[in-house]
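hiii so um. not sure if this is the right channel but i have a protein structure encoded as tokens and i wanna go backwards to a sequence. like what aa goes where. can anyone help
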């Protein structure tokens, strides 16, 4: 009986020790959470356009310079001087966010035969190739957010460029907190994306 009791006691102690260790790991995991505020781009609304088309569109990931191609939120102080918004970040690399929201914007129209990203197996008619030229909070001449995306429609059958155009929007920043700054960027992107998608639907 004494031996059995000692074994039970030992097992009980081991179980309690294991539970304490597990709680310690969970608490440690909670302590390692990112301290930055994390933002995404809003879902795009449905966009009016011409009659539906059976064309299928590919949206590759946009290109961008290194300062933009990251999770950092760009702030232009003056001229060519750039910094990043403190304790704030995008939820993913900015080009990936823009790509995802452009795909969603095309889907929301319900006017294309299909739209997707590379590797999804679509029989593509056109590629919408984009470059993020500006995606920043600007403190020069009054605080505002500016987004500029250059786009070209590439015929996937023969490799020719059907048409190309730059889209730009500026939205004033309301308030001085980070959420207000990002909201202005989000609004500027929404305008650019709406114009870009409507232009594409007319062009194909």
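sure thing!! here u go:
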């Amino acid at each position: 009986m004494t031996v059995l009791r000692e074994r039970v006691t030992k097992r009980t102690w081991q179980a309690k020790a294991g539970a304490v260790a597990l709680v310690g790991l969970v608490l440690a995991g909670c302590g390692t959470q990112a301290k930055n505020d994390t933002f995404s781009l809003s879902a795009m609304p449905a966009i009016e356009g011409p009659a539906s088309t059976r064309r299928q569109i590919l949206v590759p990931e946009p290109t961008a310079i290194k300062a933009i191609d990251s999770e950092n939120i760009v702030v232009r102080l003056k001229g060519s001087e750039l910094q990043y918004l403190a304790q704030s970040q995008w939820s993913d690399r900015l080009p990936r966010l823009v790509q995802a929201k452009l795909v969603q914007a095309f889907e929301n129209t319900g006017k294309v035969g299909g739209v997707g990203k590379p590797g999804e197996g679509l029989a593509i008619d056109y590629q919408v190739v984009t470059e993020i030229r500006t995606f920043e909070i600007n403190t020069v001449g009054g605080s505002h957010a500016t987004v500029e995306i250059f786009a070209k429609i590439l015929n996937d059958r023969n490799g020719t460029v059907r048409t190309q155009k730059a889209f730009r929007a500026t939205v004033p920043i309301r308030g001085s907190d980070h959420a207000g700054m990002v909201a202005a960027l989000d609004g500027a992107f929404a305008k650019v994306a709406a114009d870009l998608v409507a232009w594409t639907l007319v062009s194909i």
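oh and The beta strands are 37-39, 56-58, 74-78, 81-84, 88-90, 114-116, 126-138, 144-155, 161-172.
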